[in-house]
Amino acid sequence: MLRATSIIGWLSIVLASAAMAADPPSSEAARAAYASAAALQNREAWELAAEEWQALVTAHPADPLALKGRYYLAICQLKAGDWPAAENSLRDVLASKADTDTKLSSRLELGRGLFRAAQAKTDPKAFDVASAALAEFLRAAPTHPGAAEAAALA
Question: Among 8, 27, 32, 60, which one has the highest count of C-beta atoms within 10 angstroms of its own C-beta?
Answer without folding.
Answer: 60
